[in-house]
Structure formats: structure tokens, C-alpha cells
Design goal:
Elements: H1 3-14, H2 18-26, E1 32-54, E2 63-68, E3 71-76, E4 80-98, E5 106-110, E6 119-121, H3 157-160, E7 162-168, E8 175-179, E9 186-190, E10 198-205, E11 210-212, E12 223-227, E13 233-240, E14 247-256, E15 286-291, E16 299-304, E17 310-317, E18 323-330, E19 335-337, E20 348-350, E21 355-363, E22 368-376, E23 410-415, E24 421-428, E25 434-440, E26 446-453, E27 460-464, E28 469-471, E29 474-482, E30 489-500, H4 517-537, H5 539-544, H6 548-571, H7 577-588, H8 592-599, E31 604-607, E32 611-617, E33 624-631, E34 636-644, E35 651-657, E36 662-663, E37 666-672, E38 677-686, E39 690-699, E40 702-706, E41 712-713
Parallel strand pairs: 6-7
Antiparallel strand pairs: 1-4, 1-5, 2-3, 2-4, 7-14, 8-13, 9-12, 9-14, 10-11, 10-13, 15-22, 16-21, 17-20, 17-22, 18-19, 18-21, 23-30, 24-29, 25-28, 25-30, 26-27, 26-29, 31-32, 32-33, 33-38, 34-37, 34-39, 35-38, 36-37, 39-40, 39-41
Helix pairs in contact: 6-7, 6-8
Length: 715
């Protein structure tokens, strides 16, 4: 996890109720503005380090005050604030600054709170010095291994790696920590979060010597990437100036073990006898790894594909130091390079018929991580990989190549210029069979056939031209044939299950209704009498009352005026934020479906049991959008929205209305109450071709995220 993400977690905790306070005070005439005024409860003693940097020339009046049961702290500096203290119980944070400086002008960093399950905290005093060889060590070893084989990864890097939080009591105190690993492992860690007076040392200890290593060089983002040293164990030692006082610090260490590159061990190059990896599910899924200088052969990854797939690739590495070679593997195992001259990783290509896998081969002369992202666009027939075959299967065929479809589901597919037939499979599970038919748009230039097959030799026993047919238990097929000229053809259909086949039982009936005529007359009059009485009581109201249609029309007129008002305000040269905030709050008080109907079909819509998210572009060609969030029955606490560009372009948030705390591409939304409707005006910076959203928070005490399954075309 990056330092920015860690900082966001902290700010979500600290800034509960802060944004409204800062906005209110910024309109007063006092010189000082309160940006943070909040109390946090620490259930146990916890070392905390806070760093606040002014991101402009100067931030006059910048002052941080912290009140704890043990004492109070105050630091004032127009450029840089650093504070270390031991927190327990209720701790109050208050940050003030002169007018003219806002939260966007400051960079916040704070050590992780004690809610992080991956946190390793100094319980007793760690060793001052790295032990000399031969001395027994009775101190816990930090196991920061990320157990994520490339073929079986089910863990998040934040849950199996470690934040290490500790403190130095004074200038004479030092902490030494051993990191588990072996030669060839890949170690990743950012610059430690600690005061300027503190310093991090790297040591190597074995049975005969201990050696202070030369400092590792951090990259431009402030991260260390290095190979676990040979002939010994890696130790980290934190020290500070002799005249320094109490200092809290935080380290983040992640170890990628060479023995856990795959479930069978280290990746080889070329690929071995292992099965090919499954094709990634989404645009953001893929494969990553690293190559160390000691790995002379490099890595290889083989991914399962099929013929007629339109695949988009994105291969990258640290400083472009990895050479990528991409090969198409056919059903016979023969490899054909795809990169052309120079064996570069192509951005896009179409697999030919008979292709069974792609193999990526990576080599490098230096320590470097590599990453491969791939997706199929458009998606294959019936949402599966590639093109549906153009014939029925036989006993010798790989049955998985035929897309299996379900009942009463909309199936989307296409045929390219040189295709004329697609064949799909489906399974009937009812003991007596099912009565089926195809529901499709008759204007599409395709013809459907439902084929009932013999379950022993797959011969066709019966068929229908998409009409009603009885299919017994077993596996059967649907054949789709293109009509007309050779062209790219899109089509969709639904295989409707009309129910299990049943034989009606005919019985003899005798009409005895005449025996109950008097009862029917009495019962009818008795049941209708209350309705007649209600109608009599409400006769005047129904003649002159306000109709539902008039109420709905009034609501539509109000929403239309709100929409026109927002559009005109945002088109003006000077934007009145208070008026915009008022209009957005009025939208939040309106019925959700009425707002959606008035603003039209959203460019992006995501709906789950917990939340619904809609996005509209307010003005065509403008970088401003309206974002609506409707919460269901459970509130979202510590909610935050992140904006990202799935294709890797730079995107950030330039402005938010109503005012919320935001930094970079993330917005803190505080608590979203159950049943609430929130509307935000977002202005984006950057030129991404598409934009995605990621809403996260705590729902019923459990972390939850809502991510739309497609990106918003931005352009």
C-alpha cells in the first residue's frame, strides 16, 4: 500500500466532522481558520508521528495542537510541522492556519492507527544494536512475506505484509529488527515515516560477521526496491541524533519470496509443463512479478486463450528495463512470435483460429518488477472467451470451447465478416425435461435453431426454428446462422424455459354452480357494500382533489428548474459555490427516480443491494460531472470515493461541490446515512480516455467497496 493510501485512512479517521467546521469558519472575519478539530480514541498506548508540509511558498499561522491525557503538544511553523507522541485514550487534534491556506495546500502524513490488522508494534524495547555473530537472539522476526503465487493469489498485499510501528525514547535509544528472507527475494519498502532526526540503516548478519550495508537507493517515488542479500540475514536499525527526544516511526516492508512466484516454486523461462493460467477476468486484472540479477533465464507466463479473440495488452516494467517477448501457442504446442521486429509487446492483436495460449517471456539485466495487463474487447460470444465454434461437437472435441448458456439470460454475441454460424450448448436438468423457445429481435439478420441431441453420439433427434420444443434431460445445442451478406453482425437472444414438461391429467367435472346461486348473490352484495360506502364518503374529494398527475408534473417542473439552474451556474465565469451547494442539496432531498428521469440516462450506473451510483456529464465537452450516490438500508462509515483511469492515464480531482476533503484522486465523504441521497459536482484534471470510480467504507462494521464493472467514456 502506498503512503498516500495510508495517509487517506488516517485522514478519514481524523477528519470526521471536520470539513463542515472548516467551511463554516473560513467565512468568518477572524484571521485563523480551523482545518482539523476532532477527537480520536486509542484503545491502547500507540506511538504516533505526524508530518504536515506546506505545499506553497509559506503557510502563515500553521499550528498543530494535540491534547492527550498524558499532556498537551503544540507545534507552529509556516513550512513544516513534525510531532511524535505516545497516544492513548481520547486524543484531540486541532490544526489551524491563517486565511488564504486550505487543506489542498497541505500534505498530511501520519503513522498508521492501531486498527490495522497487519500492524506490528513494538511491545517491549527492541534491541539497540544488531547482535554480534554467535549470540542467541530472543526477538520476534518480521515475516513480511506476501503469499501470492501467480496462479493462486487470494491475498491483499496489505494483509500479509507489515507496517512496523515503534518509537525511540531519546537520542540514546535505538531499535534493530530482523527481516525474514533468503537470497533472491524481492524486498519492497517506501521511505520510513519518521522525524528528520532519525536515520535508517541496513545490516547483514551471519554466523561469522555483521556488516553495515551501503544505503539502498530509493526510486523517484521514494520506494526502496532491492534483492535480499546473500550469506546472511537482513536487519533494519533505526537511530537518531544524540540530542533528539522521543521519536515515533513507521516502516512498511513487503517480501516477495522467490519460492512463491508460483505454487510450484520459481517461474522458469520458457514455460514448463504446468497448465496455462486462466485469462484475466477484468480490465484491471493481470499478472506481475520480478526479475533479479541472479535470475539469468528470466520469467515466463503462459495464459489460456482461444481463437478469434480481440486482445489488448499493456506490458511495463521499472524504467523499461525488462524485455518482453510475446508468442502465440497453437493446439500442437508450436510458438509464433507476435511482437514483430524487436519482439516488443504489441498493444492489440487478434488471435487466429487454433490458438490455445499466449506465452510472455521476460528477461532483464537488473532487478526490476514487471506487469502484464490484458483484456478482451469486445467480449467473446455469450460473455466467454473468443468466438463460439461453427459446428456441433463430437466425442473427441474439447467441450469447454462451446460456450454454455443458461435459461432466461440475455446472450450477446457477434459474427465477423467471414463467419456465418455460431453454436452454443445448454444443459437441461429437470427430470422430465423442459419446454423451451428462443426470444429474439426478429429484425436481426440471423436465424435460430434449437437442436435436441442424442446423449450418446450427439446426433440430432429433433429441432425447431426457435419455436417451442420439448428437450429431455441432458446437453443440447442452439445453432445461430447469419442471413444475407458477409458483414460484422451483432445479435442477442434469450433461451426461455417455459417450465418442466408435464402431462395434464383430465378429470370428469360436474357443474353444480346452480346450488350456490343465492350464496353468490349474498356474498357479492356483502363484499361490495364497504367499497360503495367508501366511494360515497370520498365523492367530493375525487371530484375536486389534486390528482397524482398534477403532483408529479409539479415535481418534474421543480427538478427541471434545478437542472437548468445548475447548468447556467457552471457555465458562468464566476461560480457561486453557495448557490451550487444549495442546488445539490435540493437534488438530494428529491426522489431518486425523479432525479434520474429528469437528468436522463446516466453515462455510468452501478446498482447493488447496498448502494447505487450514477454519473452524468453536466455540459458536453466540459470536465465537470454530476455524481449521485444513493445508500440503501445500512450507513457507510468512513466512506471515500476514488477516481481512476483504467488505461493508466493521469487523472485527479480539481474541485468538489459541496466542499469535501480531497487529495489527488480521492475524496473523503465521511458517513453516508442509510436511505440518503448525495449529489456531488466533480471537476476532473488530466486527459483520461475513460474514468472509473471506487467507493469504499465500513458497512455494518465490515469493509466494503463498490466498483462499477465498466469505465465511463470521458475523452
Amino acid at each position: 500500500m502506498s503512503r498516500t493510501a495510508t495517509t487517506l485512512i488516517v485522514l478519514l479517521i481524523l477528519l470526521v466532522g471536520t470539513a463542515a467546521s472548516a467551511t463554516a469558519q473560513s467565512g468568518e472575519e477572524d484571521e485563523s481558520v480551523t482545518l482539523i478539530d476532532s477527537t480520536v480514541h486509542f484503545s491502547e498506548s500507540h506511538p504516533v508521528f505526524i508530518r504536515i508540509l506546506c505545499m506553497k511558498a509559506s503557510c502563515p499561522g500553521l499550528e498543530l495542537e494535540v491534547s492527550t491525557p498524558q499532556g498537551n503538544y503544540s507545534v507552529e511553523d509556516p513550512q513544516r510541522i513534525e510531532l511524535s507522541f505516545d497516544a492513548s485514550g481520547n486524543v484531540t487534534f486541532r490544526l489551524t492556519v491563517d486565511q488564504g491556506t486550505g487543506q489542498s495546500d497541505l500534505d498530511f502524513e501520519m503513522s498508521s492507527p492501531d486498527i490495522n490488522e497487519a500492524l506490528m508494534k513494538e511491545e517491549g524495547d527492541w534491541l539497540d544494536n544488531v547482535p554480534s555473530p554467535g549470540i542467541a537472539v530472543d526477538q520476534e522476526i518480521v515475516d513480511s512475506t506476501w503469499n501470492c503465487p501467480i496462479d493462486d493469489c487470494h491475498s491483499d498485499p496489505t494483509s500479509q505484509s507489515h507496517w512496523i510501528v515503534g518509537s525511540l525514547e531519546d537520542g540514546s535509544d535505538k531499535d534493530s529488527i530482523e527481516i525474514l528472507g533468503q537470497a533472491g527475494d524481492y524486498i519492497i519498502m517506501p521511505l520510513p515515516l519518521m522525524p528528520e532526526s532519525a536515520e535508517l540503516e541496513f545490516w547483514l548478519r551471519n554466523e561469522s560477521t555483521k556488516t553495515l550495508l551501503d544505503p539502498f537507493e530509493a526510486d523517484e517515488d521514494g520506494w526502496f526496491h532491492f534483492e535480499y542479500p546473500e550469506d546472511g540475514n537482513l536487519w533494519l536499525r533505526i537511530k537518531q541524533d544524540s540530542d533528539a527526544g522521543f521519536a515515533a516511526y513507521e516502516l512498511y516492508v513487503m517480501r516477495r519470496a522467490v519460492t512463491l512466484e508460483a505454487s510450484w516454486g520459481e517461474l522458469s523461462n520458457p514455460w514448463g509443463d504446468e497448465n496455462a493460467l486462466s485469462f484475466p477476468d477484468g480490465n484491471t486484472d493481470g499478472f506481475d512479478g520480478w526479475i533479479s540479477p541472479s535470475d539469468s533465464e528470466g520469467d515466463a507466463v503462459r495464459v489460456e486463450v482461444v481463437g478469434r479473440m480481440s486482445i489488448f495488452l499493456n506490458c511495463w516494467s521499472d524504467d523499461n528495463s525488462v524485455n518482453f517477448e510475446v508468442l502465440a501457442i497453437d493446439s500442437e504446442g508450436l510458438a509464433t512470435p507476435l511482437g514483430g521486429e524487436g519482439n516488443v509487446c504489441p498493444d492489440h492483436f487478434d488471435t487466429i483460429a487454433g490458438t490455445s495460449a499466449l506465452e510472455f517471456r521476460m528477461t532483464s539485466d537488473s532487478l526490476s518488477s514487471w506487469n502484464i495487463r490484458m483484456n478482451e474487447y469486445p467480449a467473446g460470444d455469450a460473455g466467454q472467451m473468443g468466438d463460439a465454434p461453427d459446428r456441433l461437437w463430437t466425442d473427441s472435441d474439447d467441450f469447454s470451447l462451446w460456450p454454455s448458456i443458461g435459461f432466461d439470460e440475455n446472450i450477446d454475441a457477434r459474427m465477423s465478416d467471414d463467419e456465418y454460424v455460431d453454436v452454443f450448448s445448454f444443459v437441461v436438468t429437470e427430470a422430465n425435461g423442459s419446454r423451451l423457445h428462443v426470444d429474439a429481435d426478429t429484425s436481426q439478420p440471423v436465424r435460430y435453431q434449437i437442436l435436441v441431441l442424442d446423449q450418446t453420439n450427439w446426433a440430432i433427434l429433433n429441432s425447431s426454428a426457435g419455436g417451442l420444443i420439448d428437450a429431455p434431460t441432458g446437453t443440447h445445442a442452439i445453432r445461430v446462422e447469419k442471413l444475407g451478406e458477409a458483414s460484422l453482425t451483432y445479435y442477442d437472444f434469450t433461451l426461455v424455459n417455459a417450465g418442466e414438461i408435464t402431462e395434464p391429467e383430465l378429470a370428469d367435472f360436474v357443474d353444480q354452480s346452480g346450488l350456490f346461486t343465492e350464496y353468490y348473490v349474498f356474498a357479492g352484495a356483502f363484499l361490495i357494500a364497504p367499497a360503495i360506502l367508501v366511494m360515497f364518503w370520498n365523492r367530493k374529494r375525487w371530484r375536486s382533489g389534486i390528482s397524482d398527475f398534477e403532483v408529479e408534473a409539479h415535481e418534474r417542473r421543480r427538478l427541471r428548474r434545478l437542472r437548468e439552474r445548475l447548468t447556467n451556474l457552471l457555465a458562468a465565469e464566476e461560480i457561486d459555490e453557495q448557490v451550487i451547494d444549495s442546488a445539490l442539496h435540493q437534488l438530494g432531498d428529491s426522489p431518486w427516480q425523479a432525479v434520474v428521469a429528469d437528468w436522463g440516462e446516466p453515462l455510468l450506473r452501478h446498482n447493488t443491494e447496498q448502494v447505487e451510483i450514477c454519473a452524468w456529464r453536466i455540459t458536453e465537452g466540459d470536465a465537470t460531472m454530476l455524481l449521485g450516490i444513493r445508500i440503501a438500508n445500512s450507513p457507510w462509515e468512513l466512506a471515500a470515493m476514488r477516481v481512476y483511469a483504467p488505461e493508466g492515464d493521469s487523472v485527479s480531482i480539481g474541485a468538489v461541490s459541496p466542499q469535501h476533503l480531497f487529495q489527488g484522486d480521492e475524496i473523503s465523504l465521511d458517513t453516508l446515512k442509510s436511505g440518503s441521497r448525495t449529489f456531488l459536482r466533480l471537476t476532473l484534471e488530466g486527459e483520461p480516455s475513460n474514468v472509473g470510480f471506487h467507493l469504499s467504507g465500513l458497512v455494518d462494521g465490515e469493509p466494503l467497496a463498490a466498483v462499477p464493472n465498466r469505465a465511463l467514456e470521458w475523452g
